[in-house]
Amino acid sequence: MAGSFTAHNIRLDDGSFTKPEQPYQMEDLALLKFTKQFLRILFPEGAAGKRVVDLGCLEGGYAVELARAGFDALGIEVRQSNFENCQRVKAGTNLPNLTFLCDDVSNLAKYGVFDVVFCCGLLYHLEEPRKFVDLMAQVCRRAAIIDTHIADTQPNGEFVLSEVTENEGWAGRWYSELEDDNQRHTDKWSAWSNRKSFWPMKRDLMQGLLQAGFTMVLEYPIFEPYRDLSHRATIVALKD
Ligand SMILES: C[S@@+](CC[C@H](N)C(=O)[O-])C[C@H]1O[C@@H](n2cnc3c(N)ncnc32)[C@H](O)[C@@H]1O
Prior knowledge:
Blueprint: H1 30-42, E1 51-55, H2 61-68, E2 72-77, H3 80-91, E3 98-102, E4 114-120, H4 129-139, E5 140-149, E6 165-167, E7 170-176, H5 181-186, E8 196-200, H6 202-211, E9 216-219, E10 232-238
Parallel strand pairs: 1-2, 1-4, 2-3, 4-5
Antiparallel strand pairs: 5-10, 6-7, 7-8, 9-10
S-adenosylmethionine binds next to strand 2.
């Protein structure tokens, strides 16, 4: 069942906001500002007809703003309750180029090829991030923008993680997800079916993106007080 919005404060067409108690809205977010500017540079011919997928889109805030920027935006969200909030956003905006789907991102290949893959806050909720990086590369024509927690040699002061170990040939640390099935529904930001997620080291993630078929991989540092750049990264992977 849809409920109150947990994170995305989205401006609707009538001027109302989905999370009005929050002092900032989607358009204020540094990651969104960067993404829109970067895509304007990448596509000087304009956004019309370009497909963007927002993976694990939660309440749809990034997808809405990318649709407002002119892209054909598809948000994919596995939780029905979050998806219902996406539908409320869709109903509150006149954006024919905005679509939401309720599905697991592991089914991404069903939805065709995208000029841009936007993956924020999702990779660190997956048990096999390397396999998912391969899937993103498979469906991506031009650019992937990934914003994610990463593992570091130093312990993470905010999250409880395992010692450094290896998974899918990458170094990183395990994070424990769902304790029980009920949590699947109550914890709206968490993993869907996996009980643990693997947070790769940044080096392995960036190298893995190259090995998956991207030809250039860059990091864009977002300098904000709440961001610890040893444990969170914004990475752009490009194809020619
Ligand atoms: C930490 S939240 C990030 C939300 C949003 N992308 C953002 O950055 O604000 C993770 C989101 O991914 C969704 N999610 C987790 N696993 C998923 C999966 N396998 N398929 C689709 N969505 C998933 C969750 O329901 C949640 O909405």
